[in-house]
Amino acid sequence: MSAARNTAVASAIIPRNVKFDWDEAPLHWIRDDAFSSHAINEFSYLLTSGEKFFCRVFREALPLVTDDRLRADVQAFIRQEAIHSRAHHDSIEGYLKRLGVDGGEFERHNALLFDQWLAREPYGRKVPKPLQHQWLVIRVGAVAAIEHFTASLGTFVLEAQSWERDGADPVVADLFRWHGAEEIEHRTVAYDLYRHLGGRWPLRTLLMAIVMPTLVQRMGAGLVQLMRQDPSFDRGDASLLRPAFWRAWNRGAERGNTPAPGWFARHALRFVKPGYHPINEASTEQALSYIAASPGVLAAARA
């Protein structure tokens, strides 16, 4: 197969260092919307372990990539995701922990999901040799499904003008917008790798049926974890079983600060269309335009 058929990346993916000053970032970084502040911040805990998993799986797949262009894209993807994971880890250490916020049970469950359930040897149990390639394809396909959301979320945060209206802290906003822009930049790589390894439409549909509800559940669990440590919330409302929780989520979405729960279902349907390709799901030009002006990227370049 030719390189053009194996990868849809239009330009080289560039791993970039970033530098953020966390000394002044407030817990309610969207000043007038505490709920949405937590809804976005919980991604730092989810992505720190999740993107390490992406790197492990792609390193495992790399020896099977026979196309030079796709191999270069996968290697750049790994480097970008490693930087993303480190940046979110630094934000937890320098920002959230400074304000007394801990990942707790949410962080531990994320580690179980990515480090145990989705490991090459799940919970230390060797996968039978005839199934090892298919297990790799399944995990790469799961990454492709997640990457569909991260690219779509990238577009959301780049276009979230309500953040400034509601007094968003520029440093936290830049962390998520820089990250979202780079997710758009490399949005085709996971899907191209999935196809290169033999992944097809029926499995893609099944994987999204698992990934979408899991992602919403993980996001909700992270929100609960952060809300329970914030005295501005009634502790009884910090529960996925309380109507007040879902009303607060919908209020944040109505203000334009965070995607609504239904947003994830709508975007999941795009992924399962037979003619789907992530190149059609976002704008590389929009992403690169933001990256060129990102304070975190510019600060690292100066340093």
Polypeptide structure, described:
- This protein is mainly α and 303 residues long.
- The protein has one domain: Ferritin, CATH 1.20.1260.
- 66% of the residues lie in helices and 0% in strands.
- It is built from 13 helices and no strands.
- The chain is globular, with a radius of gyration of 19 Å.
- It starts with a helix and ends with a helix.
A few lines on this structure:
The chain has helices spanning 3-6, 34-61, 68-96, 104-117, 129-158, 162-165, 170-185, 189-196, 201-227, 243-254, 261-271, 284-293, 295-302. The protein has 303 residues and is an all-alpha fold. Residues 1-5 have low confidence and may be disordered.
What descriptive keywords fit this protein?
single chain; about 300 residues; mainly alpha; Ferritin; disordered N terminus
Strand content: under 5%
Order of helices and strands: HHHHHHHHHHHHH
CATH fold-level topology: Ferritin
| Principal-axis shape | globular
Number of helices: 13
What is the strand tally?
0
CATH class, anyone?
Mainly Alpha
Question: What Rg do the Cα atoms give?
Answer: 19 Å
Main beta sheet: strand number and arrangement? none
Ranges where pLDDT stays below 50 over 5 or more residues in a row are 1-5
Proportion of residues in helical segments? 55-70%
